[in-house]
Amino acid sequence: MVKLEANLDLVFSYSRKDRKIDDFRKITITCGLIEHAEGSAQVELGKTKVIAGIKLSVKEPYLDASEEGILMVGVTQAEIIRHMSFEPTRSSFADVEVARLVDRGLREGGAIDVKKLVIKPKELVWCINIDVVVVNNDGNLIDACSLAAMAALQDAKMLKVDTETNRVVLGEKTKELLPLMKIITTTTFQKIKKTIVLDPAIEEESPKNCKFTISLCDDNNICSMQKGGSSTMTEDDFEEMYKIAVKKRKELLKILKN
Amino acid sequence: MAQKPKGLVLWNGKKRSDGRGVNELRNISMQVGVLPQVTGSAMVTFGKTKVIASVYGPKLVVPSHLSDSSKAIVNVEYTMAPFSTKERIDPRFSRRSQELSKILSRAFEAAIFTDMYPETEINIFVQVINADAGTRIACLNAASLALCQAGVEMRDLVVGITAGKVDGKVVLDLDNPEDNYGEADFAFAMMPTKNEIVLLQMDGNLTKEECDEAMKLMKNGIQKIYQMQRDALLADYKEESK
């Protein structure tokens, strides 16, 4: 047991040799790299690489939200790196968890003004599909995917709709942007034994640790939180993570603005 | 979040739509040993929400190559009966049930002494019979009782509760209209005597102060529910020893 723990520390110190426990890895965002998508962004977080693409379509609204547009997020791992799934027996859960977290962060935080996505009340609304493809997984997919989704939303342009046939005119982007209301930033932590680290790399991620994700919107309000992993946390941990999340929101906003 | 129907007031300054105060729980009932053939089972109701949990194991893992030689595997399966909601729901395993199952199994992995049962699995099944907000928390409380009845060694009972914000007011234990039309919902579970958080999920829009307030309310609520869980277990043992 002692041996195992010593090893864990070694891995931990090695992967953090050139950054502090509350540092992100280098973040690079490239917008609009996919021509066919209405909006797209590629995010590189260290070696983690994800591409988000937005497609618009028109749909009938949901019965319980008849005056609102629809926002959907899907995350898939590219088949080429299927072997890298960190829960190989049930590989799909990791995707579902990331997708649900990104989805809830954007939707509950009100990133998009869904009321402005109505074409004909109770009949026809815009449906925004954000699909994120993970091209390389080097840890912290949640932050990479939500950053990519947010950047793609900023990049996306509206399409025209043919009101007679109720169909989208494909391939004709207008200059109008999507009705963005708020910018959501997501930060994920991993509690390794008693140390809390931001932006865990794949060597630091383990289902045995406690994982914690916070999404913040305007005025540093919390719009989504989730604890993952099979370890526990305390309220003091939460206070500390909230403080770091507020600090990092400024950095992420700066990156998203450029 | 769905649109709030006009004229629905969730918080009028004194009381909530169903007449409760800010920190009042719904009617909660807990019964241990509802399924006689199963080693551990429990039924929990929170207002109109009703769930049953059953526990099988620890037993050897089949197929054995999936087993872990150092600890037990904890599986939770969360299902909703097709008739449990207003609109019939598809009984197939949805993305939501998949997520909740995983969230719940992680909460119990933290609480169970898994290293005492190597090479085994502990299967927990939670079934929602009637859904009226707070199902994941009701399931968690039921599973905690069922595990205890099955004699699985745990660090503490696992106790959960929800809170949320309705019409700008932070309140405890949301009911269905509050969950649907409120501004935030917050699910929270702890091991009360150890003061450690095992489950935390929040969606909506809360300031830090509101979040702290919600946590304070929930910690008080958890103490009450903890006592209820202990009473339910005691009642079961008394029944058995008769």
Automatic annotation (TrEMBL), chain A:
Organism classification: Archaea, Candidatus Huberarchaeota, Candidatus Huberarchaeia, Candidatus Huberarchaeales, Candidatus Huberarchaeaceae
Location(s) in or outside the cell: Cytoplasm
Translocase as UniProt keyword: no
Source organism: Huberarchaeum crystalense
PANTHER family hit by this protein: EXOSOME COMPLEX COMPONENT RRP42 (PTHR11097:SF8), EXOSOME COMPLEX EXONUCLEASE RIBOSOMAL RNA PROCESSING PROTEIN (PTHR11097)
Name this polypeptide is given: RNA-binding protein
Highest rank taxon of the organism: Archaea
Pfam families associated with the record: RNase_PH, RNase_PH_C
Any GO BP annotation: rRNA catabolic process
Segments forming domain Exoribonuclease phosphorolytic: 23-157, 183-247
Subcellular location, principal: cytoplasm
One cellular component term from this protein's GO annotations in UniProt: cytoplasmic exosome (RNase complex)
MF-aspect GO terms: mRNA 3'-UTR AU-rich region binding
SUPFAM superfamilies: Ribonuclease PH domain 2-like (SSF55666), Ribosomal protein S5 domain 2-like (SSF54211)
Keywords noted in UniProt: Cytoplasm, Exosome
UniProtKB/TrEMBL annotation, chain B:
UniProt keyword list: Cytoplasm, Exonuclease, Exosome, Hydrolase, Nuclease
Subcellular location: Cytoplasm
UniProt-listed CDD domains: RNase_PH_archRRP41
Domain called Exoribonuclease phosphorolytic: residue spans: 24-153, 156-220
Any one biological process term the GO annotation gives: nuclear-transcribed mRNA catabolic process
Predominant location category: cytoplasm
Domain of life: Archaea
GO CC annotations, alphabetized: cytoplasmic exosome (RNase complex)
GO MF: RNA binding; RNA exonuclease activity, producing 5'-phosphomonoesters
Subunit-structure text: Component of the archaeal exosome complex. Forms a hexameric ring-like arrangement composed of 3 Rrp41-Rrp42 heterodimers. The hexameric ring associates with a trimer of Rrp4 and/or Csl4 subunits.
Family label: Belongs to the RNase PH family.
Protein name in the entry: Exosome complex exonuclease Rrp41
Organism expressing this protein natively: Huberarchaeum crystalense
